[in-house]
Write a structure and sequence with these properties.
Layout lengths: L8 H6 L4 H8 L23 H7 L16 E4 L7 E4 L2 E2 L3 E5 L2 E2 L22 E6 L13 E6 L12 E11 L4 E11 L3 E12 L25 E14 L2 E15 L7 E18 L2 E17 L7 E2 L2 E2 L3 E17 L4 E18 L12 E21 L4 E15 L11 E2 L2 E2 L2 H9 L5 E17 L2 E12 L3 H5 L5 H4 L10 E3 L7 E13 L6 E20 L12 E25 L3 E16 L13 E10 L2 E10 L17 E11 L3 E8 L38 E9 L1
Parallel strand pairs: 4-7, 25-28
Antiparallel strand pairs: 1-2, 2-3, 4-5, 6-7, 8-9, 8-34, 9-10, 10-11, 11-12, 12-13, 13-14, 14-17, 15-16, 17-18, 18-19, 19-20, 20-23, 21-22, 23-24, 24-26, 26-27, 27-28, 28-29, 29-30, 30-31, 31-32, 32-33, 33-34
């Protein structure tokens, strides 16, 4: 029986197939797949499964990139291993990110050491995304949702046996000469499991698809400066199992000698982090108990990398040091009240301490003392929550959750390099600003409420619908409240937006409160194998949205970098996620063919000023054709991104043109090994990253306008990657 369905024309136009392949697809036969009926999970997470994760690991050293095909998720440009995920237009601290159940904090005025930078893609076993209407049990102190990324769970041997297993892998990517390796090994009995995982990765500056700036003696016109990196991660795990109880201890360490940032004026010259994570889970007659204790210590250093000017007069570099310490605890009980009702009760605590100081350099304005950007910063969270899930009848399921958090923040007095205000025309106002800051009460306590109410309706085996409302609350971070210097040179070092501007904190900031309405319709065949379409429109209104304004008493200049201040305003975000798949059929000599598609649209408006919000991803579409035959899987993928014309005026955000890319991937997998091969940006297109920020990756970056405004960070040109993984 012949299929009457044909491939999508746009995909073929972007990535032409050979005449043989086109003829084969036109005559695809219908296939029959037998599978178990779908069992509904009331609040299902999104995210790549094991099959989707495998081919992505060799294509990038950035774990956030593993989420690039999740509906509603986009990626905010940063360093090579530190991209920030965005959910429905809400990024960075507005997204709750957990690594192995730990709520980690970025200890950096540029948020270079983001939570997902602490886990290498080779060690990611699962990635879950709760977009928008996230259950209160998945985390708080966020607006856009939750991301839960985890390393492999412990494995045990059969009773009376010993299990030994492991994996070794390596990869190479041509653009930037990126390469690395990873190793994992397990030794286990039926009650004890010991595991080790280690990885290393490094790359040089990558090339864009074409020249995008004037060439210099050290950087050709097509090389994107400050994109090199080197990172190493290690993890040791010990787990004990008895009946339905598991106790697990993981100790991990990161040594990152350097990571350069094309949209920041500084580079990371050291990041050493140690994490200890103790986890217990047990099943009892009444339900399940889940408890976790964790801690993280981070030493972070920044300065100018090889592509940025290092000497300014007598000042050699600008050292910036940060110490961050996090201690956390979580306790959750899941009580099975009946076959219909489940109740979750929990409590969380997070203790965070931060010191951010800049040692003196030379004999000029960056001397003679130490500049204290954040002195003994404190941010503690205390949370309790309850969540009731009920299967009302075979068609309806509901979930209602309530969460309260107390966020207690404080910091000590600060000081500039010198107890003076400088001299004209080099006024720094260090004494004036620090005196004004120190005279104020720094203690702030917020009482925050989260509420989520969701319902799911499944009238048939081929359709289901979900809808709900959520109120989510986030308190400002330490830099938003406590960065204090209006001095241009100091302000531009406090920037986690990647826009090249300088930022000053605001002691009077209120917590952000987001109100979200969302609906999802999901239509599919009864087995969810042959076809499926899911659409999710959503709308969010944010009260006291933390935005930016021109520094009071100054005027912002168009088409220049400026000094801004954080301020509460209001915002509205609305959008649509659309995804689908279609099994086209199979041919005896060519295997089976499946088409997949993804569309994301988001639009954000500052309701106070009427301007577009910063960093909204323009309309984008991904179309792919996947062929599977035997041990082979081959994918042709096209990505289309519209021009970015709605930009933030106060930040002088850079407009970017639309573009399309074609990517190829091929995998061959057997029981003992796997080979991945791919080509990203097949036609070597030149394009600018809509969320890549301003290019400040080379030159005299300490001076706010010592580098040209108006250049967006380019995307990577053609890159061929190869990955090999062996199991033993």
């Amino acid at each position: 029986m012949k299929s009457h369905l044909k491939p999508l024309a746009a995909l073929l136009a972007a990535c032409p197939l050979s005449a043989l392949a086109a003829e084969a697809i036109a005559s695809l036969d219908e296939i029959v797949v037998t599978a178990a009926r779908h069992t509904y999970q009331p609040v299902a997470s999104l995210g790549p499964g094991a099959a989707e994760l495998a081919p992505l690991r060799s294509a990038s050293s950035d774990s956030a990139s593993l989420l690039r095909d999740v509906p509603g998720v986009s990626l905010l440009g940063a360093g090579g291993v530190s991209t920030l995920p965005v959910i429905h237009g809400l990024a960075d601290d507005r997204v709750n990110v957990q690594v192995d159940g730990m709520d980690l904090m970025s200890a950096c005025p540029n948020h270079m050491n983001s939570p997902l930078s602490y886990i290498d893609p080779s060690n990611v076993a699962s990635a879950k995304v709760y977009a928008g209407l996230a259950p209160v049990s998945t985390g708080g102190d966020s607006l856009g949702g939750s991301i839960q990324m985890a390393s492999p769970a412990p494995v045990f041997a059969a009773a009376g046996q010993i299990l030994t297993q492991g994996q070794i892998g390596t990869f190479y990517r041509s653009n930037g000469d990126a390469h690395g390796a990873n190793l994992s090994a397990t030794l286990a009995s039926d009650t004890v499991s010991f595991n080790y995982a280690g990885s290393t990765t490094q790359a040089g500056d990558y090339k864009a698809g074409a020249d995008f700036k004037p060439a210099t003696a050290s950087l050709p016109a097509n090389v994107v400066g400050s994109t090199a990196y080197k990172s190493g991660n290690q993890e040791i795990g010990l787990a004990l199992r008895h009946d339905d109880r598991l106790l697990e201890l993981k100790v991990s360490a990161q040594n990152l000698p350097h990571e350069d940032f094309p949209n920041q004026r500084m580079d990371m010259t050291r990041n050493d982090s140690t994490q200890v994570n103790l986890h217990y889970v047990g099943r009892y007659g009444w339900g399940k108990l889940d408890a976790r204790l964790y801690g993280e210590d981070t030493r972070h250093e920044m300065d100018f990398g090889a592509d940025k000017q290092f000497i300014y007069g007598t000042a050699h570099g600008m050292p910036m040091n940060t110490d961050g310490n996090t201690r956390g605890a979580k306790l959750q009980a899941e009580l099975v009240l009946s076959e219909r009702d489940t109740l979750r009760l929990g409590s969380e605590f997070q203790n965070y301490r931060l010191n951010d100081w800049w040692p003196p350099s030379g004999t000029g304005s960056m001397s003679p003392g130490t500049f204290w950007n954040i002195d003994h910063g404190k941010r503690d969270r205390y949370a309790v929550f309850g969540e009731w899930e009920s299967r009302l009848n075979p068609l309806w399921t509901s979930q209602v959750g309530l969460r309260h958090e107390t966020v207690d923040m404080n910091t000590g007095n600060v000081a500039g390099y010198a107890a003076s205000n400088g001299t004209a025309p080099m006024l720094s106002n260090q004494l004036k600003d620090s005196t004004a800051f120190n005279a104020q009460d720094h203690g702030k306590t917020d009482q925050n409420w989260d509420l989520t109410a969701m319902a799911h309706y499944m009238p048939s085996e081929t359709s289901d619908y979900a809808f709900g409302y959520a109120q989510k609350t986030r308190s400002p971070n330490l830099y938003e409240r406590y960065s204090w210097s209006t001095w241009t040179m100091a302000a531009v070092m406090n920037n986690f937006a990647g826009d090249g501007n300088g930022y000053v904190g605001n002691l009077n900031l209120k917590p952000e409160v987001a109100h979200t309405l969302s609906f999802s319709g999901d239509w599919h065949d009864a087995d969810r194998e042959h076809w499926g379409v899911k659409v999710t429109p959503y709308a969010t209104y944010v009260q006291d949205y933390i935005e930016a304004q021109c520094l009071p008493g100054t005027m912002c200049t168009a088409n220049k970098f400026n000094v801004l201040q954080h301020v509460n305003q209001s915002a509205r975000i609305q959008g649509l996620d659309l995804s689908g798949h279609l099994r086209l059929g199979s041919i005896e000599k060519f295997g089976s063919f499946t088409a997949t598609g993804l569309l994301n649209y988001v639009q954000g408006e500052n309701r106070t000023t009427g301007e577009p919000l910063y960093d909204m991803m323009p309309l984008n579409v991904k179309l792919a054709l996947v062929q599977s035959i035997g041990h082979w899987s081959n994918t042709i993928e096209s990505r289309f991104v519209a021009a970015k014309t709605d930009v933030s005026a106060v930040r002088n955000e850079i407009r970017t043109p639309g573009y399309s890319l074609c990517n190829l991937r091929s995998s061959y997998e057997r029981q003992s090994y796997r080979v991945d091969f791919g080509v990203d940006n097949l036609f070597d297109q030149q394009y600018a990253l809509p969320l890549g920020g301003a290019y400040v990756g080379q030159g005299a970056t300490m001076s706010i306008n010592g580098i040209p405004w108006g250049v967006a960070v380019p995307g990577m040109g053609r890159s061929i990657h190869l990955g090999l993984n062996l199991k033993f």
